[in-house]
Automatic annotation (TrEMBL):
Source organism of the structure: Phenylobacterium terrae
Record protein name field: Pyridoxamine 5'-phosphate oxidase family protein
Pfam families given in the database record: PNPOx_N (PF01243)
InterPro entries associated with the record: Pyridox_Oxase_N (IPR011576), Split_barrel_FMN-bd (IPR012349)
Domain Pyridoxamine 5'-phosphate oxidase N-terminal: 31-131
Amino acid sequence: MYHQGNRELQDLFGSRALADRLEEKLRRERFTEADAAFIGAQSFFFLATADAEGRPDCSFKGGAPGFARVEAPDLLVFPDYDGNGMFKSLGNLRANPHVGLLFIAMGEKPGRLRVNGRAEVVTDDARLADMPGGQLLVKVTPTDIFPNCPRYIPRMELVEPSAYAPKAGAAPVEPKWKAFPDFADVVPPRRR
């Protein structure tokens, strides 16, 4: 789990033994039932990708709780929703399948779970029919799953869910920026 850069800093700060113990006790390659429950309860996560040259990109992915879900001990899936059309993250996955996901709970019981692995972007999958608003499916095979200490997570309260999160049987809400004169003439129609 660690490379030379990690080890150099661990040695500088005297934390190599701690890092090794954390890996030994907390890291896993398969999702547990607790992992699945935690991920399924979240309404967002952060997705880190890099292109073929290693240039990074980090994006926010959000939806109704359960939009990202563990379907098997070695499979996490989430839909891609209509966005700005740049496809920075998913385009990166086509060039470099290595991915990092960070799930954070900021409520009464803060928590954090990291999922590193390999991802595949799928254009035609039967599961999309059960994911309102999903236009693509991302399948993640984990290589490293591990919780992090929640001590720096602020306690925040959800005031209301996003009006833009897709809902079954409801027409999608379009963001105002898509009607701005600078963009309106190039916004493609929704695919689903």
